[in-house]
Amino acid sequence: MLIKPHTSRADVGVDLTPIIDIVFLLLIFFLVATTFQQTEREIDIALPDAQSGAPIAVALRELVINVDRNGAFVVSGRTVAPDDLRTIVQQAVGQNAEQKVTLRADRDAAWGAVAQALDICEAAGVEQPFVDFVPMQ
What we know:
Elements: H1 17-41, H2 56-60, E1 63-67, E2 73-75, E3 78-80, H3 82-95, E4 101-106, H4 111-124, E5 130-134
Parallel strand pairs: 1-4, 4-5
Antiparallel strand pairs: 1-2, 2-3
Helix pairs in contact: 3-4
């Protein structure tokens, strides 16, 4: 029996058919998934009303108190007096008992002003204010 040596390289190749099949299946899957998500948003439903409910954004909003290097309190971009700060914190805690407060103090700020802000937060009922010392401009 005569055996011919196999010298032709024409038979070697990569079959791309399975890869193309997978790509098309993934494309179809994502098209269908996107269509279902859009359909859920377009459902016409009437949501129930609640007497004591509040928008989620109000419940999750964090109150940030800044203490500049001169010891002044800055909340939402405006400088406030200690009595006004007390009122702001009390109103926030009144709306949300688990109000989060971040106290950002300039590293050159007087420690007395930082302690005063912490006292105001504690008196208003804030459980654990977060204190951060940062360089402020």
